[in-house]
Automatic annotation (TrEMBL):
It is found in: Nucleus. This is TATA-binding protein-associated factor BTAF1. Residues 534-703 form the Helicase ATP-binding domain. The keyword Nucleus applies. GO terms for molecular function: ATP binding; ATP hydrolysis activity; DNA binding; helicase activity; TBP-class protein binding. GO terms for cellular component: nucleus. Residues 890-1049 form the Helicase C-terminal domain. The keyword Transmembrane does not apply. Keywords: ATP-binding, DNA-binding, Helicase, Hydrolase, Nucleotide-binding, Nucleus, Repeat. It comes from Iris pallida. PROSITE patterns: HELICASE_ATP_BIND_1, HELICASE_CTER.
Length: 1114
């Protein structure tokens, strides 16, 4: 290496080589060293190996001696040993291998004794160690010889004129180019080889043609970079092997380690080394020859045009900016692998050539563009990679050709290969060019989004990924001039510019004039919502309308469906296409009623697709008579086989957050539906974690946010890590960046307005928390649980899960079951002791309750007394304050209509039963009420709502939050009472907005009844979880996401020390026992599904409270 540096310096100072000519004796010495081709004897007249290997040779000879001694002492190899002459002092690698191979062991030792078997095994072990050492030594010795010989050859090249015989110089240099693992040494050999080729110009006979051909062949040696036609024969292979990625590993050592650790074939590593070496040599040739490269080395141009044929120079786009590239298709009979290899050589050379040669290279571009639609998928992949490499160095011309020729392929309905190739190329361009594509983004986005619903999965996946990556670049494209290299008709046209502005800022959308008349005057924000929906329809996009509850999402979505129907009729497109509206079963009738109220039935004819299986079969025969089918999520799950066969115009998911769980049966069924336009309506698109947003977009635009695993890795994990109070600054920064990136990604496809922003005339909503103290019976039962073995068992389970941090499925299931049972028990106890004791209290409880209930009293009837449930007492007081429950008749017997009407929400139907029986029937007999819960058949629920809204003499509507909290319009009520509360604050807020919505004229008072110092008080503190993620991901520009923290939940199992005496702050310290049991990661995992806490069927099936109570009392 020193000699090479010295000779290069001398040559740079004296180009005529006068001084170098005086070093002939050094040159001859170097040539003598090159003549020693045997790696075992690197110097003349010496039998010594490389000194670096002396210790390894000593180890090999020691193992050979041990094998010889062991074989001789056992007496089993006397004949063999007597014919072997082993000189351990000069034993070579080949000699050691030959000696070991002569010691053949018996393959069948079944007849041998135990001691003889042991001897055979010992000798075999020594033999294998010797063979292992010789193999390692031979490999290291060969690599060392390649390095040394290449350095010597490089010194010969740089010292003076080349010798007459070039083979001793060329062979080491080519060996280093092909096999040298160290990039620095490989680069030195490649540079020397380029210098040798330079000096051989004009030499007859010369080695240059053969050397160039070999270098071009080596560029195709890497199977990871050069697609193998025999292996890559379908798009599934490309997807499975994740081949749609651009960029190479520059550090071959990292590549080597990765491949070996994965157990891959050694040939992949060798191929990667050979490709790198050949490209280094070609790089030095390009620098050395500059613009005369192809004149001096015509063989290189021959290799580039072996199959690819250039167009004449006058057809080049560089010669005339107004001419377009015309694609040239390669004949399908050409061997695909030979074509791929030709493309790979061009891919390697293109980024290196002098700028003056780029026009000549571009004459090959039409053929490469034609290969993008080749019938063989591996050829398409090779062409896409090659064009991406060319685009990095000749951006304007190549991108112009791509937009002129390849982008139109995305719309080629006659050739799936063309669409796949075009999608593949765009994917690689987006990855390879990154921000360099900013000025081209508006020209790519519109064609991409038009084929995001392609019937081919591979096309759909590639264009969706590309579209998702280009969306964040659009803000950077604002104000930029059109990119150069494009024909006039392809410069940013008016439609693309308008699309860009609208995609970035919803306020720029022009008012859309509906083609139908609505029986209502639209508010300004509703017109803007229809503008946005029409924009989505025009560009075949899909989105989430997540306006606040009560702002008219039903009206806006119905209007866009109606106008689509009217416009299709105006264009004489034949019969109407059916649209499908999916909503909770309670809202099926509500949708039909709203459509009938706002839109003439000559435009939209609805069909409520509900009822039994037999009824639904007959209803399907009426589909052709209607253009809007309204059904429930559960019906879709049951009838997906029939519904998925139909091609729908619009598919609207009302309360679309129901499909937030990507694994649920309902979600899987909904995602099988085929529709031209997909729309989700939800006031709370994300209620618990960011992963829910992925499931929604997987319905809207599959692949837009990547796979679920990719989304979790990109956004979910950084956000979860940043939420931890103990996270590092790096984790916090990563969380912020992930949040901002997600916001930019989804921003154009969500529209969000809140009531505070758009309804200045909406009356105020006043939330009042009424605290109640536990009754003696409740306190006794609460304390009994706190001191029970069950509570300790739960603490131990959760603590163990946290400490081990190992996801053991059986243990996790057991802990989850116990935690849910305990939470259910305590929350029911807060509402009423009868909910946990039951109508037939166990004998074990009678003794406990005897301290607070006289033994003479009948325990069952006594527990129905109002004073044992402070919540019922508080409810009675609220109703009386509203003028409900007192004497409501006048002196002449006429019924007075009260000034207030009340909605009473509970989580459990059993609590509504108690309110009816113990309060209304016993103490407030004059109260008129209706009831709406899960026991009411879905098709009858909306009739109850209409009755309540139309009859002002009905004072109260009893509802469960699960059934009555979604979608209903109950603005005739102005007072809401929450008897129980949900872990998920959004569910309670959804219920509140049944009354506090558009159409409400009175101030809405919300009363939340909370038991002081208990689990309920802590639930309410959890509901105050700050909405940082909501404001960052979906903010006032578009939408909303809300979540909550579930840390410190084991503390909920212990009553506050001063329960029944004074209120404890929500941030009060935890008691020691609870504090030790509070889980971090373990507890979060167990309580990950608390938003579904009040799914009654889940409790009934999996978390049986009766069994839990028996264990508690046992």
């Amino acid at each position: 290496m020193v000699l090479v540096a010295w000779f290069k310096e001398l040559r740079s100072r004296e180009p005529d080589g006068t001084v170098l000519g005086l070093l002939e004796h050094i040159r001859q010495w170097l040539l003598d060293l090159l003549s020693c081709s045997d790696p075992a004897f690197p110097t003349k007249e010496s039998l010594l190996p490389y000194s670096e290997l002396s210790r390894t040779y000593a180890k090999m000879r020691g193992e050979a001696g041990l094998l010889l001694q062991s074989a001789g002492s056992c007496g089993l190899f006397q004949d063999v040993i007597s014919n072997i002459n082993v000189d351990l002092d000069v034993l070579s690698i080949d000699g050691a291998v030959n000696f070991a191979s002569k010691l053949l062991l018996h393959t069948d030792s079944s007849g041998a004794g135990i001691s003889e078997k042991q001897i055979w095994d010992d000798i075999e072990g020594i033999k294998q160690r010797l063979l292992s050492t010789t193999g390692y030594l031979k490999c290291v010795q060969n690599n060392l010889h390649v390095t040394v010989s290449a350095s010597i050859a490089a010194a010969v090249v740089w010292i003076s004129e080349l010798p007459a015989r070039l083979n001793p110089v060329i062979l080491p240099l080519m060996a280093a180019v092909k096999r040298e693992q160290e990039e620095v040494l490989q680069r030195k050999a490649a540079e020397a080889l380029a210098e040798l080729i330079f000096h051989c110009i004009g030499r007859k006979p010369g080695p240059n043609d053969k050397l160039i051909k070999n270098l071009c062949s080596l560029t195709c040696a890497d199977s990871c970079e050069t697609p193998q036609a025999a292996v890559i024969n379908s798009m599934d292979v490309i997807e499975d092997q994740n081949l749609l990625s651009f960029g190479r590993t520059t550090n071959i050592q990292k590549t080597k380690t990765k491949v070996q650790s994965a157990g891959e074939d050694r040939s992949k590593v060798e191929g990667s080394i050979s490709r790198r070496g050949s490209e280094l040599a070609l790089e030095h040739l390009c620098k050395k020859f500059g613009a005369s490269l192809f004149d001096k080395l015509p063989k290189l141009w021959d290799c580039l045009t072996e199959i690819l044929k250039p167009v004449s120079s006058q057809d080049s786009l560089l010669a005339d900016d107004q001419k377009e590239f015309q694609m040239i298709d390669i004949h399908k009979d050409v061997d695909p692998q030979a074509l791929i290899n030709n493309i790979q050589v061009l891919r390697s050379v293109a980024p290196m050539v002098d700028e003056m040669l780029q026009p000549k290279l571009l004459t090959l571009l039409p053929c490469i563009l034609g290969c993008v639609r080749h019938c063989h998928v591996a050829v398409r992949l090779a062409a896409a990679r090659c064009i991406t490499s060319m685009a990095k160095s000749i951006t304007s011309v190549v991108m112009g050709a791509v937009i002129e020729n390849v982008i139109p392929m995305l719309a080629d309905s006659n050739s799936v290969q063309a669409r796949q190739g075009a999608g593949m190329l765009v994917t690689l361009l987006v990855q390879g060019l990154g921000v360099e594509l900013v000025s081209y983004a508006p020209l790519l986005v519109v064609p991409l989004l038009r084929c995001m619903s392609d019937c081919d999965h591979a096309v759909r996946q590639s264009v969706t990924h590309s579209f998702a990556a280009l969306v964040p670049l659009l803000p950077l494209a604002r104000g930029l001039p059109p990119p150069s290299g494009l024909s006039e008709n392809l410069s940013r046209n008016a439609e693309d510019a308008q699309f860009l502005e609208q995609l970035l800022d919803n306020s720029h959308i022009d008012d859309y004039k509906l083609s139908v008349n609505l029986n209502v005057s639209l508010r300004r924000y509703q017109q803007e919502g229809i503008n946005w929906l029409s924009f989505l329809r025009r560009f075949k996009l899909h989105g989430i309308l997540c306006d606040d509850m009560g702002l008219g999402k039903t009206l806006q979505s119905s209007a866009i469906v109606a106008t689509d129907i009217a416009e299709r009729r105006a264009c004489n497109n034949g019969k109407d296409l059916q649209s499908l509206i999916i909503c909770p079963s309670t809202l099926v009738g509500h949708w039909a009623y709203e459509i009938e109220k706002f839109i003439d039935d000559s435009v939209m004819t609805t069909l409520q697709y509900v009822g039994s299986a037999q009824e639904r079969t007959s209803l399907r025969e009426q589909f052709d008579k209607c253009n809007v089918i309204i059904t429930s999520y559960d019906i879709v799950r049951k009838d997906i086989e029939s519904l998925s066969k139909l091609a729908w115009n619009y598919c609207i998911l009302d309360e679309g957050h129901i499909i937030k769980n990507s694994k649920s049966k309902i979600t899987c069924a909904v995602k099988q539906l085929k529709a031209e336009h997909r729309l989700i309506l939800s006031g709370t698109p994300i209620q618990n974690n960011v992963l829910e947003l992925w499931s929604l977009f997987d319905f809207l635009m599959p692949g837009f946010l990547g796979t679920e695993r990719q989304f979790q890795a990109t956004y979910g994990k950084p956000l979860l890590a940043a939420k931890d109070s103990k996270c590092s600054a790096k984790d916090a920064e990563a969380g912020v960046l992930a949040l901002e990136a997600l916001h930019k990604q989804v921003m154009p496809f969500l529209l969000r307005r809140t009531k505070d922003e758009v309804l200045s005339d909406l009356p105020e909503k006043i939330i009042q928390d009424r605290y109640c103290d536990l009754s003696p019976v409740q306190l006794k039962l609460y304390e009994q649980f706190s001191g029970s073995d069950t509570k300790q068992e739960i603490s131990t389970l959760v603590k163990s899960d946290e400490d081990t941090n190992i996801a053991v499925e059986t243990k996790s299931t057991k802990a989850t079951s116990h935690v849910f049972q305990a939470l259910q028990y305590l929350l029911k106890l807060c509402s009423h002791p009868l909910l946990v004791v039951g109508e037939k209290p166990p004998d074990s409880l009678k003794g406990i309750l005897s301290e607070v209930i006289p033994s003479s009293a009948d325990l069952r009837s006594e527990l129905h007394a109002l004073h044992h449930s402070p919540k019922l007492v508080a409810l009675k007081e609220i109703l009386e304050e509203c003028g409900i429950g007192s004497d409501t008749s006048t002196s002449d017997g006429a019924l007075l209509i009260g000034q207030h009407r009340v909605l009473i929400f509970a989580q459990h139907r059993s609590l509504l039963d108690i309110i009816e029986r113990d309060l209304f029937h016993s103490h407030m007999k004059s109260v008129t009420y209706l009831r709406l819960d899960g026991s009411v058949e879905p098709e009858k629920r909306f009739d109850i709502v209409k009755t309540f809204n139309s009859d002002p003499t009905i004072d109260v509507l009893l509802l469960t939050t699960h059934v009555g909290g979604l979608g209903l319009n109950l603005t005739t009520a102005d007072t809401l009472v929450f008897m129980e509360h949900d872990w998920n604050p959004m569910k309670d807020h959804q219920a509140m907005d049944r009354a506090h919505r558009l159409g409400q004229r009175k101030v809405v008072n919300v009363h939340r009844l909370i038991m002081r110092g208990t689990l309920e008080e802590k639930v309410m503190s959890l509901q105050k979880f700050k909405l940082s993620i909501a404001s960052a991901v979906i903010n006032s520009e578009n939408a909303s996401m809300k979540t909550m923290n579930t840390d410190q939940l084991l503390d909920l199992f212990t009553p506050a020390p001063n329960v029944g005496k004074a209120s404890r702050g929500s941030n009060g310290s935890l008691d020691e026992d609870s504090g030790t049991a509070v889980g971090g990661k373990g507890l979060k995992a167990i309580l990950n599904g608390l938003e579904e806490l009040w799914d009654q069927s889940q409790y009934t099936d999996e978390y049986n409270l009766g069994q839990f109570l028996a264990k508690l009392n046992g």
